[in-house]
Amino acid sequence: MKPIKFITAVTVPQPHESENQYDGDNTEQDPKTTFEINQEAIDLLNSINEPLCVISIAGVYRSGKSFILNQLAGYQDGFNIGATVEPCTQGIWMWLIEDEKRPRGPEGCRYLLLDSEGLGSYVKTESYDVQIFALALLIGSFFIYNGLSSIDEGSIDKLSLVVQLTKHIRAAAEDVNELSEASRIGMYFPKFLYLVRDFSLDLNIGGKKISPKDYLENALQPMKGDPARVGGRNQVREFIKQFFPDRDCFTLKRPVADESDLQNLGSLPVSSFRPEYLEQVSELIDHIFRTAVPKKIHGQKLNGPMLRELTQTYVDAINKGSSLTISTAWENVVRQECQNAIASAKAAYTKHIGHSLETNAIVEDNELETFHRDAEVYANLIFREKAIGGDYWALEDELKKYVYESKDRLKVDNYIRSQQYCQKVLEE
Question: Which of 47, 55, 95, 358 has the most C-beta neighbours closer than 10 Å?
């Protein structure tokens, strides 16, 4: 299996509204961008019943995000890698890793890689960047931010769009102040790994060796100085810490020594890469798969259909210009899963009692009652195995009504068959 399109951006030109609808003004406004989920991705997600560990990546465009994901998948190529200044990935792409390449993860989860469109492209707006960034965060259970060279003031500035997230994402519908909301949203955000590519600095401060995580934490310390000058930058740092309480950092040296080879990383043999880079990549892959976890909301693991419903809710919200409210998206997932559970339970009742009753068989009422009770127990078991959320009493009542109405129909059918049989005996 290779990468497929997951979320596609669709740009539609917007005509100007003219004061005089007959004046022939056909000039256009800035185009409107909407998102849609690719049908092939929908079909794939619908087929995955196991929990999913979703590893997503974001970062500045043309910074090698796709190349790193290819190596996570165990391939040199896969996600598209370009060699020009033009953005390569469009929208969000997905890749389900085969079990042969990567054994199942914690709790039997399968690994799904998401490659998102690069940030800061000259052909896209900041609003578009925030939407892509938000989707990669909300769908993922392990998030990689791909940076270059070092974590300095410039790289922190590139992450300033995290401040915009509170304008697009809500944990719940009620209003709270932005910093409190960031902390609440952080409870739902994935693990965060700041990956620093082409890193050549010595990790030490004051002559003391430090870890990559220490390096990140030190970069997130508030700047000192005039609040009017450093206030905005410190706000970015505070939001990063609130959004990503479970954060880490990893550094990678430049993969090759020859500058020209950087444009052809996907086609180079392994022997062309620097040994220290290969060693670090091996450690990175081990770290990610060792610490990545299944996608969960309120402790509930998400399988393919649940992730599809969650994503659809977020995409619909973006297209309507609404906030991406996590509680609302989860309610939609719960509602859909419970509806699927009730349908499965009804089918289970009908199938189970059908096995007990031979076609056109006539049984005693007490036998029919026994068959009904056994089928009802089985249907309730199926419903509780598949339903999520806990608050589904109304659906249990719906199931109870269905099985008792079904029993009444069976009793009537059984009585009619009995009468017909008796009438036939009398006639003979």
Answer: 55
349: amino acid identity, one letter: Y
Give the pLDDT score at 266: 56
Q: What is the largest CA-CA distance in the chain?
A: 108
Three-class SS state of 15: strand
57 DSSP β-pair partners = 115, 144
Residue 74 host element (H or E)? none
* H-helix segments, 86-177: 126-139, 153-158, 165-168
Angle between helices 326-356 and 393-427 (to 10 degrees): 20
Residue 241 phi, psi (nearest 5): -70, -35
β partners of residue 93? 5, 115
Residues 6+ apart with CB under 8 A from 365: 411, 414
CA neighbor of 353 nearest in space, from 378, 382, 375, 376: 375
pLDDT tens-digit profile of 177-219?
A: 555 677 788 888 899 999 998 888 888 887 889 999 999 998 8
Closest CA to 331 of 317, 320, 344: 317
Question: What Rg value do the Cα atoms of the chain yield, rounded?
Answer: 28
Residues in contact with 260: Cβ distance below 8 Å, sequence separation at least 6, in sequence order = none
Token pair for residue 305? 């259909």
CA trace torsion 157, 259, 74, 90 (10° rounding): 50
C-alpha distances in angstroms, 31 versus 18, 123, 134, 179, 256? 17, 12, 21, 32, 41
DSSP calls for 227-281: HHHHHHHHHHHHHHHHH-SSEEEEE---S-SSGGGGGGGGGS-GGGS-HHHHHHH
CA angle 32, 34, 40 (to 5 degrees): 150
Give the tokens for residue 222: 């508030």
Three-state DSSP class for residue 105: coil
| Pairing mode of beta strands 142-148, 300-301 | unpaired
pLDDT in tens, 58-89: 887 655 677 788 888 887 777 765 443 344 45
N-term to C-term CA, the chain: 67
Residue 382: what are its φ and ψ, rounded to 5°? -60, -45
Reported residue count of the chain is: 428
- Token pair recorded at residue 248: 């880490």
Please state, in angstroms and rounded to a whole number, the distance separating the CA atoms of residues 147 and 312.
Answer: 29
Helix count and strand count (H, E) for the chain: 13, 14
The strand pair at 191-197 and 4-15 is best described as unpaired
The per-residue pLDDT for range 247-284, each reduced to its tens digit, is 999 998 887 766 655 655 655 766 677 788 888 888 99
